[in-house]
Amino acid sequence: MSFAARKKLELFDYVNYTLLAVISLICIFPFLYVFSVSFTDPKAYVPLQFYIVPEQWSLSAYKYILSTNSFLHALKSTVFITIAGTALNLVVSFTLAYALTKKTMPGRGWMLSAVIFTLVFHAGIVPGYLLVKQLGLLNSYGALIWPALTNAWSLIVIKSFLESLPPELEDSARIDGCSDLGVFLRIVIPLSLPAVAAFTLFFAVSHWNTYFNALIYISDSKKWTLQVLVKTLVIDSDSIGVGQSGGDDRLVPQETIRMASIMLAMAPILIVYPFLQKHFAKGVMLGSVKG
User: What is the residue range of 242's domain?
Assistant: First the structure.
């Protein structure tokens, strides 16, 4: 490589890294602001002032939110939906994807066509709402779990991953007298743990962040998810009296409560993700290349 070409490459790298650093800072600063305001003492909080580090640390906003029944109900609802929904997602997605890898399965072609069809076309909001209503799932957790048991993208990726596993292992297990269910549970699932970890994160994040479906299907405030509650605190706080701190004479600033609620909604995913990041990347890539 010539000296001029090397200089151009170095200049490009410099500009590229600088641009990426600026974009990263733009993304990080709002998060730092939310974090700082949520931990700022209500007495020291000044509206419209930008915070990077709280001037006076305080847990007042968190104590207020965690003491409210609405937050506890929303937390219970979200945790239940996330755990139950993720478990059912994994069972349905992996069992159906495994079945679709078997070319001898009756109706396999039609089922694959139906899966791909849903990947391209979507019924829309109104038909989905009417279906949930006809099934009697309105205002229940089932409205957020059953219609989202799996999706076409997950099935296709998991199917591709399972097809990359050596078929000789399954043949050996069957020779040893293992049933189809035994092959799936003892051979396929243990070899698919990276993919299981990756899709556990996918499904869990999706259920934890459930907002729109909860907004249109759930009318009972005791069954709201955290995201709906956060929306209420951030946008509709004036209408529900947010800002009063129980027996305390002073008012907790609404902005600190809003930011604290956002942090509480994000915290579980931020805590869990680093532990699954390795499996997340590996699980997605394993099914992308065969051979």
Answer: 59-291
- pLDDT-derived band at 166 (thresholds 50, 70, 90) equals confident
- Specify if 225 maps to a domain: yes
Tokens describing residue 156: 């296709």
Q: Is the residue at 25 inside a domain? A: no
Which residues are CB-neighbours of 282 under 8 A, at least 6 positions away? 194, 198
Nearest to 143 by CA among 71, 65, 228, 72: 228
What the block records as the tokens of 37 is 């305001």
Query: Which of 121, 171, 125, 174 lies closest to 147 in space, CA to CA?
Result: 125
243 pLDDT tier (thresholds 50, 70, 90) = very low
To the nearest 10 degrees (0 to 180), the angle between helices 193-208 and 69-100 is 140
- Number of domains forming the structure of the chain: 1
pLDDT at 283 over 70: no
Q: What is the DSSP string of 8-40?
A: HHHHHHHHHHHHHHHHHHHHHHHHHHHHHHHTB
Q: What one-letter code names the amino acid at 72?
A: L
CB neighbourhood size of 185 (10 A): 12
Q: Two tokens at 238?
A: 């004036």
pLDDT in tens, 184-220: 988 899 988 888 888 888 899 899 999 999 999 998 8
pTM to 2 decimal places: 0.80
Q: Does residue 198 fall inside a structural domain?
A: yes
Question: Looking at residue 145, which CATH number applies to its domain?
Answer: 1.10.3720.10
Q: Check: CB of residue 62 under 8 Å from CB of residue 290.
A: no
Report which of residues 44 and 57 the model is more confident about. Answer: 57
Q: Is residue 100 part of a domain?
A: yes
